[in-house]
């Protein structure tokens, strides 16, 4: 089943300052010019909860990704290389890049085309705060994370961008998030949990990580099993606990514990995973409150699970 064309995201204003826009006709013209083999195929804009790219389905087998903010060719090319590596090591289907194209005066950002992975995302299939028992999905996520951890680093280390290094470098961001979220959640409890979890030291080792393992990036089968993984462009070395964020983004307590047992995570690793989930979720609620209701709701659901988790707050 395809991801729906419309209905998942309702935008009231731009998500980012200076956000770029490209229409369906303009996207189709750029795609045909850059990829003659795709010329003539139907191109349709996709309504998704994504915060980085506008997506355009190309026929039945490809999708174009146009960044919402101007991005250099080198950065998009690096994402394509990471995506290709991720697809090679992931035990589930993942998009494969077709090519990267330079921007122009009308659309001043590089953009890309990749293969399409069939199915509904977890954000679409499981939008509720309590999706019910998902033991098979917990097992699949353990299989995915374990496979990524076993892949070779090839001498690489964390690049210092975004999440995956020292939790403490995010203190300034978290202070802003707490200040802007008083009307959305129990900030005092969130501050207290962050203070405890963020003190847990980095384990001193790294593994290969998806680095953005959230429900919109998981494709599910009709029976709720993992059937594909999207957005592997950030794939790279990171804290082994980073991919554990999906436990609080998606799973109930019993399934979180099932995932933890399958991965053999000790208390420090598991609690650092909770810290990364908190760092990500705290920014989603207030930042996308008016512009991306799906992502805002995801952040608040995750915060609810974190603040009620006896394995973290006890």
Would you kindly provide a written description of the structure presented here, covering whatever features stand out?
The chain is of the alpha+beta class. It has two domains: 24-118, Phosphorylase Kinase, domain 1; 121-313, Aminoglycoside phosphotransferase (APH), C-terminal lobe (Aminoglycoside 3'-phosphotransferase, Chain: A, domain 2, Alpha-Beta Complex). 40% of the residues lie in helices and 13% in strands. It contains eleven helices and ten strands. The chain has helices at residues 24-34, 73-89, 122-125, 135-150, 171-180, 187-197, 245-250, 253-263, 267-287, 293-308, 310-313; strands at residues 43-46, 53-58, 62-67, 97-101, 111-115, 120-121, 207-209, 218-220, 226-229, 236-238. The strands form three sheets. Strands 1-2-3-5-4 form a five-stranded antiparallel beta sheet, with helices on both faces. A hairpin with a 5-residue loop joins strand 8 and strand 9 (226-229). The N and C termini lie far apart (41 Å).
């Amino acid at each position: 089943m395809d991801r729906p064309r419309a209905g998942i995201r309702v935008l009231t204003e731009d998500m980012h300052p200076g956000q770029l826009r490209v229409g369906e006709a303009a996207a189709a013209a750029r795609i045909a010019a850059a990829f003659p083999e795709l010329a003539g195929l139907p191109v349709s804009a996709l309504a998704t909860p994504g915060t980085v790219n506008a997506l355009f389905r190309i026929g039945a087998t490809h999708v174009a990704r146009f960044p919402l903010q101007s991005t250099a060719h080198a950065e998009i090319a690096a994402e394509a290389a990471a995506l290709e590596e991720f697809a090679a090591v992931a035990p589930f289907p993942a998009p494969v890049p077709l090519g990267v194209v330079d921007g122009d005066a009308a659309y001043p950002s590089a953009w890309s085309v990749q293969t399409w992975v069939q199915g509904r995302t977890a954000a679409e299939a499981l939008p509720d705060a309590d999706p019910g028992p998902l033991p098979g999905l917990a097992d699949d996520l353990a299989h995915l994370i374990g496979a990524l951890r076993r892949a070779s680093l090839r001498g690489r280390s964390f690049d210092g961008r975004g999440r995956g290094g020292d939790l403490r470098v995010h203190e300034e961001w978290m202070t802003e998030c707490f200040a802007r979220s008083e009307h959305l959640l129990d900030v005092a409890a969130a501050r207290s949990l962050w203070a405890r979890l963020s003190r847990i030291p980095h384990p001193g080792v790294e593994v290969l990580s998806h680095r953005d393992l959230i429900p919109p990036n998981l494709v599910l089968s009709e029976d709720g099993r993992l059937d594909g993984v999207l957005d592997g462009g950030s794939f790279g070395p990171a804290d082994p606990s980073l991919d554990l964020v999906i436990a609080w983004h998606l799973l109930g307590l019993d399934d979180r514990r099932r995932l933890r047992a399958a991965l053999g995570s000790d208390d420090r690793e598991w609690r650092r995973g909770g810290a990364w989930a908190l760092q990500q979720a705290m920014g989603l609620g207030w930042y996308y409150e008016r512009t991306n209701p799906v992502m805002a709701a995801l952040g608040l659901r995750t915060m609810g699970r974190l603040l009620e988790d006896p394995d973290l707050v006890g």
